[in-house]
Write a structure and sequence with these properties.
Helix content: 55-70%
Low-confidence stretches: 5-13, 371-377
Mean pLDDT: 84
Structural class: mainly alpha
Strand content: under 5%
Number of helices: 17
Order of helices and strands: HHHHEEHHHHHHHHHHHHH
Distance between the termini: 56 Å
Largest sheet: 2 strands, antiparallel
Shape: elongated
Length: about 400
Amino acid sequence: MPLTVAEFGVLAASTQRAVGVILAVVAIGGFVLYWIFNWFVGRAETGSEIELAPNRKPLPDDAEMEGRRLDQGLMVGLVCTVVIAIGLPLYWMGEPGRHDGLIEVSDELAAERGHHLYEERCATCHGSVDGPGGLRDHTLVDNNGIFLAQVQWKVPSLAAVLYRYSTDEVRYVMEYGRPNTPMPPWGIAGGGPFTTQQIDDVIVYMEHNQIDVAENRQRTQDGIASAARGMASEELGAGASTADIAAAAQQMLADAAEDPVRMGELLFNNAADGGVYGCARCHTPGWSYDADEVAAQNPLVPPEIAAGGGFGPPLNSGATTRQFDTAAEHEEFIAAGSRNGIEYGNFGQGDGGGQMPSFGSCVADRDAGDLEYISRIEFCLAHGDEGMLTPEQIAAIVAYERQL
């Protein structure tokens, strides 16, 4: 099997290292032998300083200097030249391997440091990186800071965070947190305890533990089935049996296979991994803490409004058709997401903000920046450069949103 460039670089580096060790051993051994030889052949000198001083001894004649000694000197020079001629190319051949090795070692060390930081500070809410997310107690307050309720907030999974957000966008969220959510600022600039290096280490650790495309697809499907059960239970009411809910959910899934709008509704409300595969987590206020259930017990808490706007803008009342003239433009935006400083749609944000994730293409290295040195630059290519959702699923979401 032919070697890859990286494998050849590592092999070249190993060969160069072995040759260097051999040359070092030969040089040290030669010096030791030279010292031992001189120690044995040395003899106690007798006589006056005039007889023994090196500059008073008779010098060899021209025949000796231009014969055996000259040949010895030339031979030593030739050997040194050969060593340099062989050693320098070997050193040069090993340079790519040393460079790749440094990146690999730096990457592994950063991931190890990030692992400790993640387990200490992040896993409490998010759970394991490749897990389904978690729950966290959160206090709801009104616009005046008055207490409303204590709720359980659905904390999103980070198993596919680098599919939908670039490293720069993830760094920004970690640095400054998410307003009106349990996510606090972790970076020094946002008032948190982490240095820039520590944030980068956590990102590298998360990058090492992103799930593959097949697992993304499976979790999406599981979330669609879960959304169907939830919607069926809501439609049938509290008295419905488990069997009736399961049957209604199966019928809903069958209808969705033929109806893009119905499928888009299920995808929009996909609850898998804390809602990261759907849209309601950001665009339906109260979705992250099941506001309808909380409001039934506490009238101070407003109920959910489907696509009524939460962290993201409202999508109901024809907002999406005014923002995007065609479904194709709408689909393109959902696939690519927003980018900081780039406007979108007819009434797009002036700065983009990078808040709308990419659902149709992997964007991990889009803004790698300083992290590029220790980041696996081919992360997206290694995962097929695919996003969390398929083009067909994005088209179904657009069909649902454009009829709201």
